[in-house]
Amino acid sequence: MAVVASTIIRAPYAADPSRSRGRRYPEPSPQFRSEFQRDRDRIIHSAAFRRLEYKTQVFVNHEGDWFRTRLTHSLEVAQIARTVARLLGLNEDLVEAIALAHDLGHTPFGHAGQDALNQCMSDYGGFEHNLQSIRVVDELEERYAEFPGLNLTFDTREGILKHCSRAKAAELGELGLRFLEKRQPSLEAQLANLADEVAYNSHDIDDGLRAGLLTVEQLEDVPLVGPLLDRVRREHPELPQRRMIYQVVRYLIELLVADLIESSRAAIEASGVSDPEEVRAFGEPLIRFSDPVRRDLRHLKGFLFKNLYRHHRVYRMAAKSKRVVRALFQAFFDDPALLPPQQQARAVAQEEALGEAGRARVVADYIAGMTDRFAIAEYGRLFDPMHLT
Ligand code: MG
Question: Are 46 and 104 within 8 A, CB to CB?
Answer without folding.
Answer: yes
